[in-house]
Amino acid sequence: MSHFEVIGGALHAENVPLARIAEQVGTPVYVYSTEAFREAARAFRKGLEPVGRHHVAFAVKANPNLAVLRLLANEGFGADVVSGGELSRALAAGIPAHDVVFSGVGKTRKELHQALDAGIGQFNLELEEEGVVLAEIARSRGMTAPAALRVNPDVDAGTHEKISTGKAENKFGLPIDQAPAIFDRLAKLEGINLRGVAVHIGSQLLSLDPLEAAFERVGRLVAELRAAGHAITHVDLGGGLGVAYKPGDVPPTSAAFGEMVARVTRDWDVELMFEPGRHISADAGVLLTEVLWVKPGVTNPWVVVDAAMNDLARVALYDAWHGFASVTPDGGTMVANVAGPVCESSDVFLKNREIDRVKSGDLAVLQSAGAYGATMASTYNSRALVPEVLVSGDRFEVVAGRITAETIMGAEQIPDWLEP
Ligand SMILES: Cc1ncc(COP(=O)(O)O)c(C=O)c1O
Ligand SMILES: N[C@@H](CCCC[NH3+])C(=O)O
User: Fold this and answer.
1) Which residues of the chain does CATH 3.20.20.10 include?
2) How much is the average pLDDT of 286-301?
3) Ligand 1 centroid to 59 CA: how many Å?
4) 4-32+282-410: CATH homologous superfamily?
């Protein structure tokens, strides 16, 4: 069920009227529902019940808010991190280091040291040289790093090209046909315990077919590696499950995903890892905004809101679709464009769409904004960094405060050799 519902004519997050949050915190602001995260997390885990031994690591990039990570840790989720910053967040939120997997195509030596210090559960290696360097660093410190090879299965995920990661031309993973030879060489090194493989073909997948094709290729690779004498004990199947952003989107359910995984991996005899991000978090958040003006347009009016592309970048980056709804819907509709105040023509959330009727001063939400929302925000146009609020029942708490243009300006300096 949705935890953002109209109750008594006004949109609520759980039992809190969004108008109250706007009044106390201001807008724009991200509002998250604790129950929505929990429900998605539990459904995902339940979907995996038919699957053998496994762990779930939340893809921190989707929503790195500490409170969110804590609540997911309480649901038994580890963390999939892609930077030292995300690793620090996962640990600060109370996620045990051994439940952290470190992905990413450009880990720095400093980050490898940091992750070794922390004692993380697994490094997903993206290239042979990274494995050599990791082994060297670990050896020099008398440690052994648990690692897997991330392979690129050359499968089209059927998603937006900018969030596709499993085609041969993408920068991610190493070509699956080169994996056996590279595995052979890296497995001989002291300092790493190369024990498995990893795959992640893209994000916002609305079909299970490309995932199944990729997993089957990985299954054949596991068999080939075992035939070559390697002990393969871990396979990381990544994330990627989509959500319904627009009417007509039918994402795979957690149950359908679990059933497919159980079928494909039945004979693998490994510990599986999953790295969902969006599927757990997108529908747990909205971006609450105020309508500043309704400006006449050539064909349709421009609804100018106080949220902008710097707060929610997905539309400008991927032509993404987010639902737009009034906080006080009166049943009327209008055909309009919705745009933010930023000085870019790409700062448009939607065009020529039928939306709830709104006027200046009304509050509205951009829906399904709990994933890749606040985390991708910037201060472009010297706007404040958007705050985040977490709701639980009838209470709410600011879980990330407003960093203003003045805060940022205060952290800058003008060299004294620049004359006033
Ligand atoms: C390696 C890896 N794991 C997990 C994810 C999470 O993806 P999603 O939010 O689509 O589940 C990503 C992002 O696409 C990723 O690159
Ligand atoms: N930021 C992207 C998803 C990227 C997935 C990370 N590999 C989005 O908002 O859809």
Assistant:
1) 34-279
2) 98
3) 6
4) Lyase, Ornithine Decarboxylase; Chain A, domain 1 (2.40.37.10)
CA separation, residue 209 to residues 80, 141, 218, 263 (Å): 24, 44, 14, 13
For residue 238, the ligand closest to its alpha carbon is 1
Ligand 1 centre to CA of 200 (Å) is: 7
The tokens of 390 are what?
């977490």
Number of the ligand 1 atom closest to the C-alpha atom of 275: 4
Catalytic residues: 343
Hey, what are 313's tokens?
Answer: 């970048």
Q: What is the ipTM of this complex?
A: 0.98
For helices 209-227 and 254-264, the axis angle rounded to 10 degrees is 30
Instruction: Tell me, yes or no, if the pTM score tops 0.90.
Output: yes
Task: Tell me the pLDDT tens digit for each residue of 101-129.
Answer: 999 999 999 999 999 999 999 999 999 99
Q: Evaluate the CA torsion angle 126, 254, 69, 318 in order and state its sign.
A: positive
Pocket test for ligand 1, best of 201, 203, 245, 273 (most atoms within 8 A of CB): 203
Rg of the chain (C-alpha set): 23
Give span(s): CATH 2.40.37.10, the chain. 4-32+282-410
* Residue in this structure with the two tokens 């309480």, named with its chain if needed: 74
Cβ 277 under 6 angstroms from ligand 1: yes
| Whole-number pLDDT of residue 338 | 98
Residue 41 alpha carbon to ligand 1 centre in Å: 16
CA separation for the pair 160, 280 (Å, rounded) = 20
Looking at the domain 34-279, which fold is it? Answer: TIM Barrel (3.20.20)
Ligand nearest to the CA of 44: 1
pLDDT in tens, 182-228: 999 999 999 999 999 999 999 999 999 999 999 999 999 999 999 99
Sheet holding 4-7, edge to edge: 4-7, 10-13, 16-17
Give the DSSP letter string of 372-411: SSGGG---GGGPPBPPEEEEETTEEEEEE--B-HHHHHHT
Whether 168 shows a pLDDT value over 90: the answer reads: no
Pocket test for ligand 2, best of 60, 61, 249 (most atoms within 8 A of CB): 61
Q: Span 75-85, mean pLDDT?
A: 98
